[in-house]
Design brief:
With 336 residues, this protein is of the alpha/beta class. Helices cover 40% and strands 17% of the residues. The chain starts with 12 loop residues before the first helix and ends with a helix.
């Protein structure tokens, strides 16, 4: 097993551990862009584990998401067991011959559309989507953090709607963008589906929870495709509580802004060139990126490499002071 297994996605600490068995424990996973300071889930009722979720429970979760994302009255919202599940299902609901994806970006979008027979083209800008049945934009983009203003996306969605197409906007990292740049508050009536991830910002990726905001027809089709009880009782209870906790999100947004600047300084000091990112991850370039990846792994720190783009690395934000200290020691020791 080579390091290629670590280049498709973030995560996979067990594979890194197997490749670098002499590295110190515990490993620090900075490869995913998941908040390292998770929301405290608190008490979970026994009913959440012991019985099937009631429709009313799910409706309360979706109402909390509607309020948190400032969805307009005409928009519908549906909860799912993670946005990856939505990405897998969407090509069954919106048949397309030609799909344009603004990239480079999260690779699962292209894989999913191709697996359902679509021709997928990679484009460099949203202006190149005019002849596509479906357009996909990750906003802010993963891994470079590129942002497209919501008014531009609203006009683009209207153009897709006029020709019977669909614009998919993946806002997985939008929660902590300040000032807010979400499309959802100005969502057009048709022609667009917005995806929101719960686990990244709230540091609870294992909970598997995400949302689609869009037209009533698309939301109904997704709900039917997932079937009953798609979202677990614990995910419903925790998600509802967390999404209503605006003070936690505001404090987390401030902390991550400070921590991302702290990480920028550390990475620049080690000789990296800062290329972009969001408050949950930073993208850097270096001619020595492959060597840096190996060095960090030997220190028990996993970051995100990028296969063919061998000069790039993505760093998540350390979650506590021991993690910061280990990262600083690894970077400073190798740089000196």
């Amino acid at each position: 097993m080579g390091t290629d297994v670590l280049k498709d996605h973030g995560g996979n600490i067990n594979a890194a551990r197997a490749l670098y068995p002499a590295s110190p424990e515990p490993w620090i996973d900075l490869s995913t862009g998941i908040n390292g300071v998770p929301y405290a889930v608190g008490e979970i009722s026994s009913d959440a584990w012991n019985r099937l979720p009631e429709p009313a429970d799910l409706a309360e979760l979706e109402a909390a998401a509607r309020a948190a994302y400032a969805a307009p009255p005409a928009a519908e919202i549906v909860a799912a067991p993670g946005t990856q599940a939505i990405i897998q299902i969407l090509p069954r609901l919106a048949r397309a011959a030609r799909v344009g994806i603004v990239g480079p970006t999260y690779s699962e979008h292209a894989k999913s559309w191709r697996s359902h027979g679509a021709t997928v083209i990679d484009v460099a800008a949203w202006t190149e989507l005019e002849d596509c049945d479906v357009g996909v934009i990750v906003n802010p983009n993963n891994p470079d953090g590129r942002l497209i203003a919501p008014d531009i996306l609203a006009k683009l969605a209207a153009a897709f709607a006029a020709r019977g197409g669909l614009l998919v906007v993946d806002e997985a990292f939008m929660d902590v963008i300040d000032p807010p740049q979400s499309l959802i508050p100005v969502l057009p009536a048709a022609g667009v589906a917005v995806l929101r991830s719960f686990g990244k910002t709230y540091g609870l990726a294992g909970l598997r929870l995400g949302f689609l905001v869009g037209s009533s027809g698309l939301v109904a089709a997704l709900r039917a495709a997932m079937g009953p009880w798609a979202v677990s009782g614990p995910a419903i209870g925790i998600g509802r509580r967390a999404l209503a906790d605006r003070s936690w999100l505001a404090g987390t947004t401030r902390r991550l802004a400070d921590d991302s600047r702290r990480l920028d300084d550390l990475l620049r000091s080690a000789g990296f060139t800062l290329l972009g990112g969001t408050p949950l991850f930073r993208l850097v370039g270096s001619d020595l990126a492959e060597r840096w990846f190996e060095t960090l792994c030997r220190h028990g720190i996993l970051v995100r490499p990028f296969g063919a783009r061998k000069n790039l690395l993505r760093f998540g934000i350390p979650g506590d002071q021991p993690a910061w200290a280990r990262l600083a020691a690894a970077l400073n020791g190798a740089a000196n």
